[in-house]
Amino acid sequence: MPASHSLRSRIALLIALLVGALSWLLGTLIGQYSSEQLRNEVGRDLAELSYVMVDRLDRDMAARAAVLRVLGNLQALRQPDDIGEVRRLLDSLQQEIPSIAWIGFTDPQGNVQASSNGVLEGASIAQRPVYLEGRQGLFIGDVHEALLLAKLLPNPSGEAMKFVDISLPVLAGDGGLSGVLACHLSWGWADEVRQSILGPMQDRRSVEFFVIGRDRDILLGPRSMIGQRLHLPTLDELAPGNSQWTVQQWPDGVDYLTGLTLSQGYHDYPGLGWTVVARQPLEQAYAPARRLLFSILLWGSGLALLFAVLGWLLSGYFIRPLRQIADAADRLSAGEITEIPDLRGSREIEQLSQSIRHLVESLTQQQTALGAMETLAHHDVLTGLPNRMALEKFLPQAQQRARLQQGCLALLYLDLDGFKPINDSFGHAAGDHLLREIAQRLRHCLRDGDMVARLGGDEFLMVLQVPGQEALQHASLVAERAIAALGQPVLLEVGRVAIGCSIGGAIWPLDHAELDEALQLADQALYRAKQGGRNRAEFQRQAAALSP
Question: Is residue 458 flagged as an active site residue?
Answer without folding.
Answer: yes
